[in-house]
């Protein structure tokens, strides 16, 4: 594909209007929105207003006057069309890891006779660590099987099945509906991590009968570095589940300052401490970048961009790299992984040419395509630059091999 | 005391320089810095820089370029003189409730043969809720005794003693040194909550042999609404304790993406998910309001301000209210509580006159004195206005009795 052909696709892109919602450096091809979403144009004013006018002028009264107390649910409601859930099934809170701990703990507590949390091998690491810590604390077994054996491994001892919806390396997608059905047939609950799918592909939590889910605010949702996470609890389960992380914001009457915990009705019982108002302000601006956006269009563009990248890279330098993502676009979310023996140095050489992806040890280069702001022309240009670096071996320099960087 | 006499004290105040570090509405007497600290003047620029220059321009590279990865420890180090700990014993993370869960869980895990978490009755509610949830999860007993019976109740079954350092109602102070010594004599660990003392009075965590502590970032530390919390783990314990909330940021090598959790050495193992960078930015500005401030001066001013308030209120209208804080200033931190049968309406009438304190059901009015920005003249003026409202019974109006407000 020529850059001109790509520009024609950009001109016809039904999501082109969304690009103006971001501030991005000129001449940068940013293909790492799956790690940290770009800065929404509305964020600086939102932060200034929250800090100066609300906190500064109205101080403690802002909890009432500006409705801070309701922000965890009000902002979460904006996720409803993005993840296919009812507004009252969603909450913004804590970090993804802490939210996962709460929901996995609640699921295990709801199945007290069952002793197994089931997951896949090579699930996202922090999800494994959370489950390992919880399992040790509650005297449970964490069982990790190959991804394609999860459904078959669900049995009468399975309290919960927890999986990342989209694999952080390959972008392969679990079949939510099938896993939920298999889990429910055995009486188990499902806990999904949507970190690499929310905002990238269409999700239907209610339609596929998900029980519980968590997700990250700072990737495709553009909520800023370390943004608060979100959690989902299906309506039908809310009043039966109990969070192990009980704090005053999840109490039925937080300002009664009672000695004994009484969980709030519905989703609020999954709050713990005081929510980060500045974090919520930025995340709200992030979620607003999805206003009037169809997730079907997002998913379609995600697949077109990733397919163009695969095709253009393989056509130009297929022998140099090996695709580690599914070749069928229906099995992929919105990022693509190629393996190369010197992936770290190649990625540094790309960054040096203003193409930003990321490296995952030992051999993976990961490229994320954010449908709201990445263009077809950028994807073709990135493939050209990658091919240029690989064919000229310009990555093979000491300055690209310094491993001091942490991400 | 006349307002003129108070102004003379302000002129001689060794902390007067710090007041310029805040933006406060004119004509407002803000006596609620114990609930939400005032806006530091540096916050708006700090947020703008973090959002626009760092996140916006440098995107994912900011984790290296701007050292975001180290902010939880770098910012925490600024707490060192405020709480009397070594810099490497401190960490910024999560909310106070979540931090307390981690440290209580770690303490209980370190004393596996012991089944009791000891606390006081009417401890801060969220601390009780956290401990109740943890105790249920780990099969422990939470035992709450009257505050003055805690030391006598520590025994060989006590895994951990957890107390708020300063009572959120009365401002009475626990004797840290005595509780730590009694706990250690029985082999128990101590977990302190400094939410109502950090930034208000001098604290010596190391000098009094504290084991573990948590505290709030948004009260006297001025970190903004829902600021991240802090935690302290004594140097001698760090590598033996294990957080129950295991996440990737607490892993020995987060970017190796290993399947199995290996805790980081030292304080970093108490991190869980990705830290809130915007929250850290604001909290850093909050901690910077303590630069070149002596905590001895802070404590001395806290006691003078609270004593002036007590004296002036009782002199003017002692029969109308009842002091619920210790009368001896050495037994008080930096807030004062008066009881009144119609406390809610009185507080609303005060707010209507631009004096901001808070109400704690059913009968308490709480007034916090932030030594960095409250003045002696404000305290005298607040006492005059309170007396005026009480003597004239101007609180006795329907508009002051509407209970719609949440805080």
3D structure, described in words:
- Two copies of one chain form a homodimer.
- Chain A has 407 residues and is α/β, with parallel strands linked by helices.
- The first copy, chain A, is built from 13 helices and 15 strands.
- Chain A has two domains: 3-30 and 294-400, Aspartate Aminotransferase, domain 1; 44-288, 3-Layer(aba) Sandwich (Aspartate Aminotransferase, domain 2).
- The first copy, chain A, is 35% helix and 14% strand.
- In chain A, the strands form four sheets. Chain A has a seven-stranded mixed beta sheet, sandwiched between helices. A four-stranded antiparallel beta sheet of chain A has the order 11-12-15-14.
- In chain A, helix 1 (3-11) runs antiparallel to helix 13, helix 2 packs antiparallel against helix 10 and helix 6 crosses helix 7 (125-138).
- The mean pLDDT of chain A is 97.
- The interface between A and B is large, with 91 and 91 residues.
CATH architecture of the largest domain in chain A: 3-Layer(aba) Sandwich
Number of strands of chain A: 15
Order of helices and strands of chain A: HEEEHHHHEHEHEHEHEEEHHEEHEEEH
Structural class of chain A: alpha/beta
Global mean pLDDT of chain A: 97
CATH level-four homologous superfamily name of the largest domain in chain A: Type I PLP-dependent aspartate aminotransferase-like (Major domain)
Q: How much strand content do the residues of chain A show?
A: 5-15%
Q: Work out the count of structural domains of chain A.
A: 2
Radius of gyration of chain A: 22 Å
- Total number of helices of chain A: 13
Q: Largest interface, by Cβ-Cβ below 8 angstroms: which chains and how many residues each?
A: A-B, 91 and 91 residues
Distance between the termini of chain A: 31 Å
CATH class (first level) name of the largest domain in chain A:
Alpha Beta
Low-confidence stretches of chain A: none
């Amino acid at each position: 594909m020529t850059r001109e052909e790509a520009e024609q696709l950009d001109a016809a892109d039904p999501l082109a209007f969304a690009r103006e919602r971001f501030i991005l450096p000129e001449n940068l091809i940013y293909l790492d929105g799956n790690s940290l979403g770009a800065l929404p144009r509305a964020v600086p004013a939102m932060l200034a207003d929250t800090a100066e006018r609300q906190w500064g002028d109205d101080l403690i009264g802002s909890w009432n006057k500006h409705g801070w107390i309701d922000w965890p649910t009000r902002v979460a409601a904006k996720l409803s069309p993005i993840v296919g859930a009812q507004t009252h099934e969603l909450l913004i809170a804590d970090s993804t890891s802490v939210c996962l701990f709460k929901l996995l703990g609640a699921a295990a507590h709801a199945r007290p006779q069952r002793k197994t949390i089931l997951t896949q091998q090579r699930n996202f690491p922090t999800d494994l660590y959370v489950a390992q810590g919880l399992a040790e604390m509650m005297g449970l077994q964490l069982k990790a099987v190959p991804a394609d054996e999860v459904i078959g491994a669900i049995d009468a001892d399975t309290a919960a099945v927890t999986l990342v919806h989209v694999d952080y390396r390959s972008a392969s997608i679990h079949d939510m509906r099938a896993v939920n059905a298999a889990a429910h047939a055995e009486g188990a609950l499902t806990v999904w991590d949507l970190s690499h799918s929310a905002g990238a592909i269409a999700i239907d939590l209610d339609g596929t009968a998900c029980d519980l889910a968590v997700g990250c605010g700072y990737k495709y949702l553009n909520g800023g570095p370390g943004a608060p996470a979100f959690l989902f609890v299906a309506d039908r389960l809310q009043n039966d589940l109990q969070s192990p992380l009980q704090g005053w914001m999840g109490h039925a009457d937080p300002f009664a300052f009672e000695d004994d915990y009484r969980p709030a009705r519905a989703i609020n019982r999954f709050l713990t401490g005081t929510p980060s108002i500045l974090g919520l302000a930025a995340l709200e601006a992030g979620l607003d970048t999805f206003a009037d956006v169809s997730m079907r269009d997002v998913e379609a563009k995600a697949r077109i961009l990733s397919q163009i990248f695969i095709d253009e890279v393989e056509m130009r330098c297929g022998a140099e790299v090996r695709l580690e993502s599914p070749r069928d676009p229906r099995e992929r979310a919105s990022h693509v992984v190629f393996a190369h023996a010197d992936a770290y140095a190649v990625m540094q050489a790309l960054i040096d040419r203003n193409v930003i992806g990321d490296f995952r040890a030992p051999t993976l280069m990961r490229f994320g395509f954010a449908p709201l702001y990445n263009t077809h022309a950028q994807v073709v240009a990135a493939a050209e630059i990658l091919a240029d670096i690989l064919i000229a071996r310009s990555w093979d320099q000491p300055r690209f091999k310094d491993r001091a960087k942490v991400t």
